[in-house]
Amino acid sequence: LELKFNAYLALLQLDGFDYKAIRSDSESSKHYQNFIQSLVDGGFVHVCHEYPVLARELTRQVQQWIDLVTEFLRRLSADIDTLYRKFNIPAGSVVTQYSPGLSDAHNEGRTVIILQFDSGHKTVYKPKDLGPDACYFKAVEWLNSNGTPYDFGVLKVIERTGYGWVEHAKHLPMENYEEASLFFRRSGSFLALLHPYNGVDFH
Description:
The chain is α+β, with helices and mostly antiparallel strands. It has helices spanning 2-12, 19-24, 30-50, 52-86, 131-145, 177-194, and strands spanning 95-99, 113-117, 122-126, 157-160, 163-167. A hairpin with a 4-residue loop joins β2 and β3.
Protein backbone atom coordinates (compact mmCIF):
# COMPACT_ATOMS: atom_id res chain seq x y z
CA LEU A 1 0.00 0.00 0.00
CA GLU A 2 2.92 2.33 0.62
CA LEU A 3 4.02 1.68 -2.96
CA LYS A 4 0.53 2.36 -4.27
CA PHE A 5 0.27 5.55 -2.23
CA ASN A 6 3.56 6.82 -3.63
CA ALA A 7 2.36 5.98 -7.13
CA TYR A 8 -0.86 7.87 -6.38
CA LEU A 9 1.15 10.92 -5.24
CA ALA A 10 3.37 10.71 -8.29
CA LEU A 11 0.31 10.79 -10.55
CA LEU A 12 -0.84 13.97 -8.82
CA GLN A 13 2.11 15.70 -10.46
CA LEU A 14 0.20 15.42 -13.75
CA ASP A 15 -2.37 17.73 -12.17
CA GLY A 16 0.28 20.25 -11.22
CA PHE A 17 0.93 19.09 -7.63
CA ASP A 18 4.47 19.14 -6.23
CA TYR A 19 5.27 15.56 -5.17
CA LYS A 20 8.17 16.55 -2.88
CA ALA A 21 6.10 19.24 -1.19
CA ILE A 22 3.32 16.77 -0.49
CA ARG A 23 5.72 14.18 0.96
CA SER A 24 7.45 16.72 3.21
CA ASP A 25 4.22 18.23 4.59
CA SER A 26 3.81 16.22 7.79
CA GLU A 27 0.82 18.28 8.91
CA SER A 28 -1.37 17.51 5.91
CA SER A 29 -3.32 14.27 5.58
CA LYS A 30 -5.63 15.43 2.79
CA HIS A 31 -3.94 13.45 0.03
CA TYR A 32 -3.71 10.32 2.17
CA GLN A 33 -7.42 10.59 3.00
CA ASN A 34 -8.19 11.00 -0.70
CA PHE A 35 -6.08 7.93 -1.44
CA ILE A 36 -7.94 5.87 1.17
CA GLN A 37 -11.25 7.07 -0.23
CA SER A 38 -10.16 5.95 -3.70
CA LEU A 39 -9.56 2.47 -2.26
CA VAL A 40 -12.98 2.46 -0.59
CA ASP A 41 -14.58 3.52 -3.87
CA GLY A 42 -13.32 0.42 -5.62
CA GLY A 43 -9.60 0.90 -6.04
CA PHE A 44 -8.79 -1.72 -3.41
CA VAL A 45 -10.26 -4.44 -5.64
CA HIS A 46 -7.69 -3.56 -8.28
CA VAL A 47 -4.90 -3.60 -5.66
CA CYS A 48 -5.92 -7.13 -4.60
CA HIS A 49 -6.00 -8.31 -8.22
CA GLU A 50 -2.55 -6.84 -8.78
CA TYR A 51 -1.12 -8.23 -5.50
CA PRO A 52 -2.94 -11.53 -4.79
CA VAL A 53 -0.51 -12.50 -2.01
CA LEU A 54 -1.45 -9.28 -0.20
CA ALA A 55 -5.14 -10.16 -0.58
CA ARG A 56 -4.53 -13.65 0.81
CA GLU A 57 -2.57 -12.29 3.79
CA LEU A 58 -5.21 -9.68 4.57
CA THR A 59 -7.89 -12.37 4.48
CA ARG A 60 -5.85 -14.52 6.84
CA GLN A 61 -5.29 -11.60 9.23
CA VAL A 62 -8.98 -10.72 9.33
CA GLN A 63 -10.04 -14.31 9.98
CA GLN A 64 -7.34 -14.64 12.62
CA TRP A 65 -8.58 -11.48 14.35
CA ILE A 66 -12.17 -12.77 14.33
CA ASP A 67 -11.07 -16.10 15.84
CA LEU A 68 -8.93 -14.46 18.54
CA VAL A 69 -11.58 -11.96 19.60
CA THR A 70 -14.21 -14.70 19.75
CA GLU A 71 -11.89 -16.86 21.85
CA PHE A 72 -11.08 -13.97 24.19
CA LEU A 73 -14.74 -13.03 24.72
CA ARG A 74 -15.66 -16.63 25.52
CA ARG A 75 -12.87 -16.82 28.07
CA LEU A 76 -13.84 -13.49 29.61
CA SER A 77 -17.46 -14.59 29.89
CA ALA A 78 -16.45 -17.87 31.55
CA ASP A 79 -14.08 -16.22 34.04
CA ILE A 80 -15.76 -12.90 34.82
CA ASP A 81 -17.03 -13.92 38.27
CA THR A 82 -13.57 -15.22 39.19
CA LEU A 83 -12.05 -11.90 38.07
CA TYR A 84 -14.46 -10.02 40.32
CA ARG A 85 -13.51 -12.13 43.35
CA LYS A 86 -9.78 -12.55 42.79
CA PHE A 87 -8.98 -8.95 41.83
CA ASN A 88 -11.53 -7.27 44.16
CA ILE A 89 -13.51 -5.82 41.24
CA PRO A 90 -17.07 -4.85 42.21
CA ALA A 91 -19.49 -7.51 40.98
CA GLY A 92 -21.38 -6.42 37.91
CA SER A 93 -18.65 -4.04 36.72
CA VAL A 94 -18.65 -3.61 32.95
CA VAL A 95 -15.61 -3.57 30.65
CA THR A 96 -15.31 -0.07 29.18
CA GLN A 97 -11.90 -0.27 27.48
CA TYR A 98 -10.11 -3.06 25.63
CA SER A 99 -6.44 -2.60 24.70
CA PRO A 100 -5.03 -5.47 22.59
CA GLY A 101 -1.65 -5.81 20.91
CA LEU A 102 0.38 -5.03 24.05
CA SER A 103 3.01 -7.68 23.39
CA ASP A 104 4.65 -9.47 20.51
CA ALA A 105 2.16 -11.67 18.68
CA HIS A 106 2.58 -15.40 19.25
CA ASN A 107 0.59 -18.56 18.54
CA GLU A 108 -1.44 -17.38 15.55
CA GLY A 109 -1.42 -13.70 16.46
CA ARG A 110 -2.38 -13.83 20.13
CA THR A 111 -1.24 -10.88 22.25
CA VAL A 112 -1.59 -9.50 25.76
CA ILE A 113 -4.77 -7.49 26.38
CA ILE A 114 -5.51 -5.01 29.17
CA LEU A 115 -9.12 -4.55 30.24
CA GLN A 116 -10.49 -1.59 32.14
CA PHE A 117 -13.80 -1.74 33.98
CA ASP A 118 -16.23 1.09 34.72
CA SER A 119 -15.13 0.79 38.35
CA GLY A 120 -11.63 1.92 37.31
CA HIS A 121 -10.07 -1.50 37.93
CA LYS A 122 -7.80 -3.05 35.32
CA THR A 123 -6.76 -6.61 34.64
CA VAL A 124 -4.33 -8.24 32.22
CA TYR A 125 -5.21 -11.13 29.92
CA LYS A 126 -2.28 -13.29 28.81
CA PRO A 127 -2.87 -15.98 26.15
CA LYS A 128 -0.21 -18.36 27.41
CA ASP A 129 0.47 -20.82 30.22
CA LEU A 130 0.82 -18.78 33.43
CA GLY A 131 2.24 -21.63 35.49
CA PRO A 132 5.74 -20.06 35.53
CA ASP A 133 4.27 -16.69 36.55
CA ALA A 134 2.33 -18.25 39.42
CA CYS A 135 5.42 -20.14 40.61
CA TYR A 136 7.49 -16.94 40.47
CA PHE A 137 5.04 -15.00 42.64
CA LYS A 138 4.86 -17.87 45.15
CA ALA A 139 8.66 -17.84 45.36
CA VAL A 140 8.89 -14.08 45.96
CA GLU A 141 6.08 -14.30 48.55
CA TRP A 142 8.25 -16.77 50.43
CA LEU A 143 11.29 -14.49 50.12
CA ASN A 144 9.29 -11.50 51.35
CA SER A 145 8.16 -13.45 54.42
CA ASN A 146 11.68 -14.66 55.16
CA GLY A 147 13.61 -11.44 55.44
CA THR A 148 14.55 -10.26 51.94
CA PRO A 149 16.01 -6.75 52.33
CA TYR A 150 13.70 -5.24 49.70
CA ASP A 151 10.23 -6.69 49.25
CA PHE A 152 9.32 -7.89 45.78
CA GLY A 153 6.00 -6.95 44.25
CA VAL A 154 3.48 -9.78 44.21
CA LEU A 155 0.60 -9.90 41.73
CA LYS A 156 -2.45 -12.14 41.88
CA VAL A 157 -2.70 -14.71 39.09
CA ILE A 158 -5.59 -16.76 37.72
CA GLU A 159 -4.34 -19.84 35.88
CA ARG A 160 -6.32 -21.46 33.11
CA THR A 161 -5.39 -24.00 30.44
CA GLY A 162 -3.32 -22.16 27.85
CA TYR A 163 -4.10 -18.68 29.19
CA GLY A 164 -4.74 -16.72 32.35
CA TRP A 165 -5.31 -13.37 34.03
CA VAL A 166 -2.89 -11.23 36.05
CA GLU A 167 -3.55 -8.37 38.41
CA HIS A 168 -2.67 -5.06 36.77
CA ALA A 169 0.54 -3.45 38.09
CA LYS A 170 -0.13 0.26 38.45
CA HIS A 171 2.64 2.55 37.24
CA LEU A 172 3.64 5.16 39.80
CA PRO A 173 6.24 7.89 39.21
CA MET A 174 9.19 8.36 41.56
CA GLU A 175 8.60 11.51 43.59
CA ASN A 176 11.96 11.96 45.30
CA TYR A 177 15.54 10.71 45.67
CA GLU A 178 14.61 8.11 48.30
CA GLU A 179 12.04 6.50 46.04
CA ALA A 180 14.49 6.46 43.13
CA SER A 181 17.14 4.87 45.32
CA LEU A 182 14.69 2.20 46.49
CA PHE A 183 13.66 1.50 42.89
CA PHE A 184 17.22 0.75 41.78
CA ARG A 185 18.00 -1.31 44.88
CA ARG A 186 14.89 -3.41 44.29
CA SER A 187 15.85 -3.73 40.60
CA GLY A 188 19.22 -5.08 41.69
CA SER A 189 17.49 -7.59 43.97
CA PHE A 190 15.28 -8.60 41.08
CA LEU A 191 18.29 -9.23 38.81
CA ALA A 192 20.00 -11.21 41.56
CA LEU A 193 16.90 -13.40 41.86
CA LEU A 194 16.67 -14.04 38.11
CA HIS A 195 20.37 -14.68 37.51
CA PRO A 196 20.58 -18.21 39.05
CA TYR A 197 17.62 -19.27 36.89
CA ASN A 198 19.10 -17.86 33.66
CA GLY A 199 15.99 -15.67 33.44
CA VAL A 200 15.43 -13.77 30.21
CA ASP A 201 12.69 -11.55 28.74
CA PHE A 202 11.26 -10.48 32.07
CA HIS A 203 9.14 -7.34 31.80
